[in-house]
Design brief:
Length: about 525
């Protein structure tokens, strides 16, 4: 029992010191290394007197446990958001993660996940402290053997480091824990510096003082829709497992638009976020600043930087509305974005079931927009921001399109939701999750284009795009951040104004289409649709 306890303690500490921060790097070769931090720690414990040694051992164990928890958070964030955990900014996202689990898998699953996370955190801290204390006590009782072993391991580490010895491309002499600590400290420093620098950048606005009568003169009289399709990324168009179905949908939609007298141009935008945090993509697109973290988002929405939507409001020539089915509580940012009225999930009259995280099908959200705003008589044209959520992970169950006359209050979707696939069955299957993701994009695109063809007219202008790429489980490890963007209009003059952009005909850009940073769109759009220069 004593030998087993000591062995498990060594294994736990060894695992903590060598645990990679990315799921794809966790393989046997990652643990065929000698951690220099363990050698240094053992040396320190051998030199300390008994009482001090035990105190230091417990503290070291707690610190090592905390670093392990941060490593686990890094693994999760890299898997879902394509980046590591930011210890300054990302704690608020843990609450969002709990809400996502509840919405996607149910309240019981969310409660179990939350309890499990707390138990795991406490267990890691306690067990790591006990493990280091156990190793310390064994070393103290076997001082001569511990000293020789530490000396031998230290010598081997130095030799391996000097010779660059590797196993399967991984250095045997490891200093990964020290490197991770240094990296985290550097990230904290950069985050704090970025907060100060971004505040200066956000204070400068090319169009901040432009009078309303000089904004968007090229779109006067048009009903303009800015529509974001959740997780609609380049993967949907280029991944061989997904592209055939999405490609057929886009090709068919382009043909239907052309037949109805519409035309489309498309290109690529590089999103500021990946896998999630959709609001960062929305704000980057609309505000014209690179908003890739929550601190930047708070800074800019607390100021008066001109958003694209507020530019429409400033003209006085449009009624501006937001259709936000993903918003389930107060959203004060609506005022910053210049929206005269915001319809969130509670205002759209939906009486059907949720589709996992998505509060309602996209077709219903669009039908509600028609009923509440677009289909009514106004003394001004509409500018609308519409967020479509049916393609949000975990991509099950997926709604299906139905005749617009049957949408009603959404009750019809109960049978559709009940017949759909279960989120857990899809999300945990690496093949199935790609298939269902593709189907969800097809549904969202079809719903949107069908809405334009059913309710649009010669004054309709649609700008639609993805907010970010899907998570790595679908898009692949280290995927890019590009998303498709398209402008659809019936009036040829609208598309003539962007003839210099180099965008391609139709809804499906190929590899040769221009790629812009998403933050550049606002100024390009305002420039294209502003007064023509003599």
């Amino acid at each position: 029992m004593a030998w087993a306890t000591t062995g498990l303690s060594l294994a736990l500490v060894f695992l903590a010191l060598l645990l990679p921060a990315e799921l794809t790097l966790i393989e046997p070769t990652a643990f065929l290394r000698i951690p220099v931090e363990g050698i240094c720690g053992a040396t320190l414990l051998l030199l300390l007197p008994s009482r001090a040694r035990r105190v230091v051992a417990v503290l070291a164990g707690v610190v090592l446990g905390a670093l392990t928890l941060l490593n686990l958070l890094d693994i999760g964030f890299n898997e879902f958001l394509g980046r590591g955990f930011n210890v300054v900014l990302d704690w608020i996202l843990l609450d969002d993660a709990e809400s996502y689990v509840e919405d996607a898998f149910g309240g019981t699953a969310a409660t179990l996940a939350m309890v499990g996370a707390v138990v795991l955190a406490v267990a890691v801290l306690v067990l790591m402290a006990l493990a280091v204390l156990r190793i310390s006590d064994v070393m103290a009782r076997n001082g001569a053997v511990a000293t020789r072993t530490t000396l031998v391991l230290g010598t081997v580490w130095v030799v391996c480091a000097a010779l660059g010895v590797q196993v399967a491309g991984v250095p045997v002499a490891s200093r990964s824990t020290a490197a991770l600590v240094q990296d985290r400290a550097e990230r904290v420093r950069k985050t704090l510096a970025d907060e100060r620098e971004f505040a200066k950048v956000a204070a400068v606005d090319t169009y901040g003082d432009t009078p309303g009568d000089q904004l968007l003169t090229g779109l006067r009289g048009k009903d303009v829709m800015f529509t974001f399709i959740e997780s609609y990324g380049r993967t949907a168009i280029e991944d061989p497992r997904i592209a055939p179905g999405v490609g057929r949908t886009l090709k068919n939609a382009t043909e239907r638009l052309t037949k109805a007298g519409f035309a489309a141009r498309s290109g690529w935008l590089t999103s500021a976020t990946y896998g999630g945090s959709s609001w960062l993509g929305h704000s980057t697109f609309l505000i014209g600043l690179w908003i890739d973290n929550q601190n930047r988002y708070r800074t800019v929405t607390a100021g008066d930087h001109l958003s694209l939507t507020r530019a429409f409001q400033r003209t006085g020539a449009w009624r501006t509305v937001g259709i936000m089915p993903g918003v389930q509580k107060a959203w004060p940012e609506g005022r910053f974005y210049g929206l005269d009225h915001v319809y969130d999930s509670r205002d759209l009259g939906y009486q059907g079931p949720k589709f996992s995280w998505s509060t309602m099908p996209d077709q219903y959200a669009l039908a509600a927009f028609e009923r509440l705003e677009h289909g009514r008589k106004h003394d001004k044209p509409l500018m609308s921001e519409i967020i479509l959520t049916s393609s949000h992970q975990p991509w099950a169950p997926i709604p299906r399109t139905i005749p617009w006359s049957e949408v009603g209050d959404g009750s019809v979707y109960r049978a559709i939701q009940k017949a759909g696939k279960k989120p857990a069955d899809v999300f945990t299957d690496t093949t199935e999750v790609k298939t269902e993701y593709g189907k969800s994009i097809q549904y969202s695109v079809h719903s949107l284009i069908d809405y334009v063809l059913t309710y649009g007219d010669e004054n309709t202008v649609l700008v639609f795009l993805g907010d970010h790429q899907p998570l790595a489980r679908v898009s692949g490890d280290h995927a890019g951040r590009d998303v498709p963007v398209a402008i659809v209009a019936h009036d040829e003059a609208v598309l003539d104004r962007i003839s210099g952009w180099g965008w391609q005909d139709g809804l499906m850009p190929d590899a040769k289409a221009p790629v812009w940073k998403m933050s550049s769109f606002r100024d390009r759009f305002l420039d294209a649709y502003g007064p023509r220069q003599p």
